[in-house]
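Much of what follows relies on a compact textual record of a protein's fold. An example makes this concrete, so a full record is given next.
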Amino acid sequence: TCLLLQGSCLLADDWVYTVRPGDNLWNLAERHLKSFKYIRQLQQLNGVQDPYHIPPGKKIRIPLEWTIRQSTSARIASLHGNAVVKRGNSQRILQAKPDLQLFVGDEIQSEADSFVTIEFTDGSRLRVQENSCIRLHDLKIFGDLGLINTAVELKYGRVENIVPKNSETDSRFRIKNPSAISSVRGTEFRVGVLQEGAVTASEVLTGALQVSGEQQTVNVDKGQGSVTSQGMPPLPPVKLLPAPDLSMTPELYEQLPLIIPVKAVTGAQAYRAQIAGDAEFEHMLTEFTTTTLPFREGNLPDGNYWLRVRAIDISSLEGYDAVKAFTLNARPEPPFVITPQPGSILPGEQPVLKWATQSAASHYLVNISRESEFLSPLIFSGEVVENSLHLHDNLIPGEYFWRIASVSAEEGAGPFSDPMT
């Protein structure tokens, strides 16, 4: 099978160059070709009347055989979790780390809950998802940074790819196993190897793909996906599922585990959720798939995060992303309450509130109110150092609500407990 992005080079061994103001065959040969002897052949191949004057915008076909070429490298742009790099054909195994240079033949393996973002010479980025393995098959520059050729073998797992939109350098980006994908700049797509390598699922978010296999070809446009099985022609493209509705998802969480409500998407058989520390999802922290809603995630430190969710259809094609920012402030946790317990009936007008000592707390915040929203607290004690509070002012008989929060020197004020009556 072979997947080709529409708009890429017409022939596998040709580079289609778009003429810019000031270009002519002589300076093109000086910058990009092995020898000036190819100028006459280049003129004939492209029907150029005057080698000194070529109209800007004209497409010039340049056989890659004639071009200067050199090997290049890639680098690890970011890493979360653990991954290893098997260096080429040697037996060396390196621990992956940011800014580590990568070369042709290197194999990158990510572990569970681990993500590696690789940046190539043209600015293209490939994110290796958890439990995935890729091998850098080819990294070449043709001409004077005229064409960047990148080929990656996806052995198992999933990758997400972004090829830069605004670059004067042409890019040819391919992903193999068992399919090959060629890309032009401005394309964002995802590839997953399913069923132990027997099936490849491709999703196009921007740009377009041509999927070929068993002498059959289908076009896959933006917003579509296609599944290709080994030894079978590609299935007709289908529309990707829409982004899920995250309007019910809170923007502030004050306790763990996170319970993430998402409205069900018609046609979805599962969902993928990702949490990152930045809006670009360069620094992914966790990823999981589930067939049930709502999601639950149990172990994140306090901080500001970005949530990304997509629906997965019956063919395992993954749809458009929904993204939402949220804040987690679950620490230090409220202390364990001793008295009064929720629903208690207390005699007297000066009750004593008691709780267990919270080891992380330097002091406590205590609120008492006549209503559960605490819009107008009757009592707000913000510097309670001990693990009890004796009220000195009389409370008239009636129903009251109280809550308590811990404060630590490292994390500040944690969340309040649920209101207790």
